[in-house]
Amino acid sequence: xxxxxxxxxxxxxxxxxxxxxxxxxxxxxxxxxxxxxxxxxxxxxxxxxxxxxxxxxxxxxxxxxxxxxxxxxxxxxxxxxxxxxxxxxxxxxxxxxxxxxxxxxxxxxxxxxxxxxxxxxxxxxxxxxxxxxxxxxxxxxxxxxxxxxxxxxxxxxxxxxxxxxxxxxxxxxxxxxxxxxxxxxxxxxxxxxxxxxxxxxxxxxxxxxxxxxxxxxxxxxxxxxxxx
Length: 228
Ligand SMILES: [Ca+2]
Hints:
Helix content: 25-40%
Largest sheet: 5 strands, mixed
Order of helices and strands: HHEEHEEEHHHEEHEEE
Structural class: alpha+beta
Strand content: 15-25%
Bound molecules: calcium ion
Oligomer: single chain
Number of domains: 1
């Protein structure tokens, strides 16, 4: 187990550099459990591939691609690169495990696994078009203005229609280190309301995925905790 965690830590570190999606160790531990328990131990060739579990590897839960995530309970669900997410036009499954910090461990307190149709996906993005997204993406990649000015412009654009009207939120990332990324996310309440209506969004004593309870907690210190 120790070796596995060390291995996952290395993977997570390389993901932080390589991937637009900031995958943390606890996220990798949860995703591995999902793949081992429900998808015949499938191992992704890379953590930056389009789907964590491609449709061809999903033989028991709907033959659609799957994206598992672990997210802090009550917080926004980061979906990654906005253009890439917008381009999805096939049914897929989003598996979200919500965790709460308990001392040095994260306890999973809710799991939801909605199947999302292309129609539902379009509705969450509406009225934003791909052309709108490209416009915002182009703005944040403009090397002309200062970072401060660019952040102001990007904020103004994302808080105006059509971006202010979509359920999916746009998150321009403009760093002083030259980082320019357009990411997107779904608010906690919107995730449950839009994708799992009728489900209980409260923390649960025995959260389960496809009827299987997540075993135990994940050893993972709170963010910003000093290294051991
Ligand atoms: Ca994932």
